[in-house]
Every structure is written in structure tokens, then in C-alpha cells.
UniProtKB/TrEMBL annotation:
PROSITE patterns: PROKAR_LIPOPROTEIN. This is FixH family protein. Residues 1-22 form the signal peptide. Residues 29-109 form the YtkA-like domain. Pfam families: YtkA (PF13115). Keywords: Signal.
Length: 149
């Protein structure tokens, strides 16, 4: 009986360690850190470039599986997805033009080897309404910095 319990315990440990090897949560030693950089002043009807820097263990990430920006306006029901392009190791950019002034959000969706990072940052295009200004004053500058799943 003790041999059976020992064998089952060993088999369970092997199975669990195998699962952890393929589990992104087990890669805690290799977190992705994602930093979104926006232009200082963003105007309506003007092409703007957004940049994201991605590091893994403090080193610029050479290649990512997927990097896209999701952009939406406050209270909008739909968002726009923009593919990012690599400009150099760990640096990805995308361009967008905004038709309306107001409060917007940008979320970088970054994935590499099963680990993802999805920080969100708010920004202003042109002038804000009083309601949008109140929202900006209540929220932190950047959300989910370096968050990984």
C-alpha cells in the first residue's frame, strides 16, 4: 500500500511539473514589461505615432508573437485595432488619426511565448468636455503596467 501511495505521489508530482512548464503563470522569472509612449499633444485629423517598449527580464524583447494597439473613445461601444510594427528590438510603433476630440484609451496587447501584457493608458485628443475632465482627474495615469496573464 505504501509503495502505491509513493508511486501515485511521484506520478502526480511529475504531471504537475509538466503542466507548470507549459503554463505561462509558471514563467514568473520572465515577466513582460510593457510601456506605452504617446505624443505630448494629440490633435484631431492629424496622424499620430504611438510607441510601446517591451522588455523581458529587463532586456528589450527581440521578437514578440503579437503586438496590437486597441484604441477607443470614452463611452464608445466599439474600438479600433491597429497592428504594431517593430522599429527595432523591443520597440513597436503604430499610427492612428482621430476624427473627434475627447478622452481616449489605448491598450497595448503584447504576447510572447504564451505570456501577455496589456497595459491601458488614457490620453486626450484636442479639448475635453467638463465630464471627460472629471474622469481624467479621478483615474490613475496608467493602468495594468506590465500586467501579464
Amino acid at each position: 500500500m505504501n509503495k502505491r501511495i509513493g508511486a501515485l505521489t511521484l506520478a502526480g508530482a511529475i504531471l504537475l511539473s509538466g503542466c507548470a512548464a507549459g503554463n505561462p503563470e509558471a514563467r514568473l522569472s520572465e515577466p513582460l514589461e510593457t510601456f506605452i509612449y504617446l505624443p505630448e499633444d494629440i490633435s484631431a485629423d492629424t496622424p499620430e505615432t504611438f510607441t510601446v517598449h517591451v522588455t523581458e527580464n529587463g532586456e528589450l524583447l527581440e521578437t514578440a508573437d503579437d503586438i496590437t494597439f486597441e484604441v477607443w473613445q470614452e463611452a464608445a461601444e466599439e474600438s479600433e485595432w491597429i497592428e504594431a510594427e517593430s522599429s527595432e528590438a523591443g520597440v513597436y510603433t503604430a499610427e492612428a488619426t482621430f476624427e473627434k476630440e475627447g478622452l481616449y484609451y489605448i491598450q497595448a496587447h503584447v504576447s510572447s511565448d504564451g505570456v501577455s501584457s496589456m497595459p491601458v493608458k488614457s490620453f486626450t485628443v484636442g479639448e475635453l468636455t467638463e465630464e471627460e475632465q472629471a474622469i481624467v482627474e479621478e483615474e490613475p495615469e496608467e493602468h495594468d503596467e506590465g500586467h501579464h496573464h
